[in-house]
Amino acid sequence: MQSKLVPLRIPPGWMVNFNQFTEANPDAFKNDDYEYKWEFNEDILQFDHIKNNRTVDLGWYPEFNPKGKYKIVLINSSDPDWQNPIYKFLSRDINEIIEKIEYVLEEVSNGRI
Fold it and tell me: What is the mean pLDDT of the chain?
């Protein structure tokens, strides 16, 4: 059984490539027995803003590791450099991640980053 998707406020102009960002609790992920451990992978969410040439990507690093963290990166999609993102944020706190994703989506939509 999979957890529910996290509700996000997505401004106009974004294309969802994939979204598997669920309400699985990182604090409950303590070992390999955790029922939702497969939801903590490197490919959780990816959105593109075509007009502003930006890609937002969310993953869990290291993948399937209970000591991992969520990582948000923002890259220039016309010249992708995953090693040097425009923006990067790491946290285990799902609420912080939601807040930062929505912040980045809004800032890109308004042409500020």
Answer: 96
